[in-house]
Every structure is written in structure tokens, then in C-alpha cells.
């Protein structure tokens, strides 16, 4: 396990899936980690916290809905009070409920926009003032290859993720002068609850494994290395970029 870095990472949506893997991966790399998720995910948050602490790192937990500005501001205020600073923000919280666009309800359209896109905006707005003051920071947004390509039954989701890639590019230009980088990761198919629900069957999993260059689908841990790269000094001259982490399923 790496030595303590004296750096604080915040990971949203960290009660399970990719968010939990990232929170634990950052702890293993020496970061102290603040984790957030919905109040309904308190059990998962507690498990993630215990895993971080078992790695010898500090953990802070905030329950909040990423789509509600007052809750996001309050949670980031608490994190800053306790941790003293935010070196890295990982915007990971997200939802996917597949539907044909023709059949999509207004409620589901709004929910995807609110969580996947507005949530990224709100978390960045909450974290950036303290990063700007310190003239240092790293933001890593979890987008999706769906946001690059567009996928049938995921039009609304893909639109939110395309918007996340655009927010990444624009934030990078707006905060670069303050020593802050903003990059995105576009995962392919990752076998989390979301990924499995999306594929629906073992047969579909086998199909997509064969379509993928590396002949396997992703695990949450596959996202850790790219996220640590964007968080580290190794990527000091990289900003406003979106990296596909998909095992070779999409190539643009
Ligand atoms: N799994 C995949 O195949 C895949 C592919 C591409 C991108 N992604 C993206 O990766 C991220 C993580 O996905 P995952 O597969 O781990 O999904 P997941 O459903 O397992 O986890 C998502 C987490 O976000 C939290 N969340 C949802 N709504 C929230 C809200 N309003 N406020 C706060 N937290 C909320 C959930 O409670 C959950 O803990 C998402 O942004 C997703 O779009 C996933």
C-alpha cells in the first residue's frame, strides 16, 4: 500500500459500483477520501468507509442528493470543514434507466439530466472556489462512451453524458489559469449493477465480450488507474480531454 499523500479526494456515488472502487483505489494510492451518495445508500457508504479506513486512510461520509444544490453545497461545506481542502473531485454519481426516446417520460428525462449533468455542474461549483484559492485541483468526470456514440434505448442517458464531456471541455478552459485540470473518463461496459441491468442477460454479456477487443467486459477496478492518472502530477499538461476506458469497444 502507498504511503499517505496528504491529499483529499472526493468521490460522489461511492456507495457501490465504480464509485466504491474509485474511493478504495484512491485510498490504496494514499489519498484520504470523502465519499457521498444518497441517504438511501447509507449501508453501502458505511461499507465503503470501512474499506477505506482498513487501508489506513481517513474517510468522511456525506449523504446528499447530487441533483439538489442546497444539499450539495452543504455536503461540500462539511467536507471542507473536516478535511480542510479538496485536491481531487471525482464526479461519478449517475443513473441509467433505458427507454426508447419515443416512450421516454418527461420525469425520466428530467431525472437523468438532473443527476448526470446538473449533478456534475453543482459539484464542480461547490468544489472549485476552494481549489481556485489554493491554485490547485483536479476534477475527473465519469462520462460514458454512450456520450460519444449514442446508443438505442439510452438516448436520454447518452445526451447527459455528451453534455458531461462538453462541461469538461468548458470547465477546463475556465479554470486552467488557476492550476486546475478537468478531464473525463468514458467507461465502456462495466459489470456493476448499472452495467448488468443495462445488458439484461448472460447472452448479451457474452455477445459484448466478443465484440470487445480485449474479449472481456470491464470491472469497476478498471477505472481506477485512469482516474489516478488524471488526479496525479503525471497528467499535469492534460486538460479538457475525454479518455475511453472500454477494453476496445469504441475507437473515436
Ligand atoms: N456501469 C457501466 O457500464 C458504466 C458505463 C459508462 C459509464 N458509467 C458511469 O459510471 C458512473 C457509476 O456507475 P455504476 O455503474 O457504478 O452505477 P451504480 O448504479 O452501480 O452506482 C451509481 C451510484 O450513484 C449513486 N447515485 C444515483 N443517483 C444519485 C443522486 N441523485 N445523488 C447521489 N448519488 C446518486 C447511486 O446511489 C449509486 O451508488 C455513472 O456516472 C455511470 O453513468 C457506467
What does this structure look like?
With 252 residues, the chain is α/β, with parallel strands linked by helices. The protein has one domain (8-189, 220-245): 3-Layer(aba) Sandwich (Rossmann fold). It contains nine helices and seven strands, in the order βαβαβαβαβααβαααβ. The protein has helices spanning 17-28, 42-54, 69-83, 106-134, 146-149, 155-175, 193-199, 202-211, 224-231; strands at 8-12, 32-37, 59-63, 88-91, 137-142, 180-187, 242-245. It has a seven-stranded parallel β-sheet with strand order 3-2-1-4-5-6-7, with helices on both faces. Helix 1 (17-28) packs across helix 9. It is globular and about 45 Å long. The model has no long low-confidence stretch (mean pLDDT 97). Bound molecules: nicotinamide-adenine-dinucleotide. The site of nicotinamide-adenine-dinucleotide has 27 residues, from helix 1 and helix 7.
Amino acid at each position: 500500500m502507498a504511503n499517505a499523500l496528504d491529499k483529499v479526494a472526493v468521490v460522489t456515488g461511492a456507495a457501490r459500483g465504480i464509485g466504491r472502487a474509485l474511493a478504495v483505489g484512491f485510498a490504496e494510492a494514499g489519498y484520504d477520501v470523502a465519499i457521498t451518495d444518497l441517504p438511501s445508500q447509507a449501508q453501502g457508504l458505511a461499507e465503503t468507509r470501512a474499506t477505506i479506513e482498513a487501508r489506513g486512510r481517513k474517510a468522511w461520509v456525506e449523504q446528499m442528493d447530487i441533483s439538489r444544490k442546497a444539499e450539495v453545497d452543504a455536503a461540500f461545506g462539511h467536507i471542507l470543514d473536516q478535511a480542510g481542502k479538496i485536491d481531487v473531485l471525482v464526479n461519478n454519481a449517475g443513473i441509467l434507466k433505458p427507454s426508447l426516446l419515443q416512450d421516454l417520460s418527461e420525469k425520466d428525462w428530467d431525472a437523468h439530466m438532473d443527476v448526470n449533468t446538473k449533478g456534475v455542474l453543482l459539484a464542480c461549483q461547490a468544489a472549485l472556489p476552494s481549489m481556485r484559492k489554493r491554485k490547485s485541483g483536479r476534477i475527473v468526470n465519469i462520462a460514458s462512451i454512450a456520450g460519444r456514440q449514442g446508443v438505442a434505448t439510452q438516448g436520454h442517458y447518452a445526451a447527459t453524458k455528451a453534455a458531461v464531456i462538453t462541461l469538461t471541455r468548458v470547465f477546463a478552459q475556465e479554470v486552467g489559469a488557476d492550476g486546475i485540470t478537468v478531464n473525463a473518463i468514458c467507461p465502456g461496459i462495466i459489470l456493476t449493477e448499472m452495467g448488468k441491468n443495462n445488458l439484461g442477460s448472460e447472452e448479451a454479456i457474452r455477445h459484448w465480450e466478443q465484440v470487445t477487443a480485449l474479449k472481456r467486459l470491464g470491472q469497476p477496478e478498471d477505472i481506477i488507474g485512469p482516474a489516478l492518472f488524471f488526479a496525479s502530477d503525471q497528467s499535469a499538461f492534460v486538460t479538457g480531454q475525454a479518455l475511453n476506458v472500454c477494453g476496445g469497444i469504441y475507437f473515436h
